Amino acid sequence: MQNKYVMEILKEYERLSEEAKSAQLQRQKEIYHKIPRIKEIDNEISRIGYDIASSIFKGIDVESYIKERRRKITDLKMEKAELLTSFRYPVDYMEVKYICEKCKDTGYVKNEKCSCFKQKLIDKFYQQSNLRDVLKKENFDMFDISLYSSEKYKDELVSPRKNMEEILISCINFSQNFNAISDNLFFYGNSGLGKTFLSNCIAKELLDKGKVVIYQTSSNLIQILRESRFDENISRERIEEINTCDLLIIDDLGTEPNTPYSQSELFNIINTRILQGKKMLISTNFSLEDLMTIYPERITSRILGHFTMFKFYGDDIRIKNSINKRKPRI
Ligand SMILES: [Zn+2]
To answer: If you measure from the C-alpha of residue 2 to the centroid of ligand 1, how many angstroms do you get, rounded to a whole number?
Structure first.
């Protein structure tokens, strides 16, 4: 199973880098046609490059020769950049544009799998390939704080809007300072108040930074683990990824079947990640009191002890309508 996915992804990389190179050739052709001087410059640069390479064998004052030749290359590159700009092209117009600059769409950096490769594998493993499409529409800029009332709500000390402002700041802080922060996040409260939306915003920010993110509802996660038990080849890999990805998002905690099996799987995931200092974001529609009665103490104590708790509250109708209009739920 793993091999099949790896093969598919490697093929995809091959296609991506071919596309990137042929698009670059196309742009080069266009420029050579419009600005013939640039073709001369490129030829000259490669000739000088060859000169430098062969100068070592010539027995001349190599150092000053190379220095002088390098200066010439810099001059030529300057001239090329100025020409491109004067024709209103971006300076890097003739360079190859890769989707992932880290691995140049090869999937590997120094023989190690690039984070984009790991993410592609995870997307295939967990069928979360639709995640990116959903995330295109969901980011912190889209979060509309005005949907939350600024009136006092029940017994809460601050208004829903003030509460959300604080949650939003913490979420932005979490994703922007991801490497420095050791906290995990726990969102709880009624549905329709933006928990999934904010989880998506965080996932998007981190994916954009090249972090590896697994995003699953808790019922899917338990299902995946259950299936993995029947296939030894994929089980180790899958469980390894759940344990080691940069951020594990467990959405809708409590929707999984409430059995000793799923509770022990949940405990193992949460505990292993805590021990390894790997971050998590968990959300649930349950209240804290409900959680205490549903889950055994060993799970709730891990959550209370290692997560920053954020309570979502307010009148959900306007918020729900607005959020549902914008997106399908993952
Ligand atoms: Zn990459």
So the answer is: 19
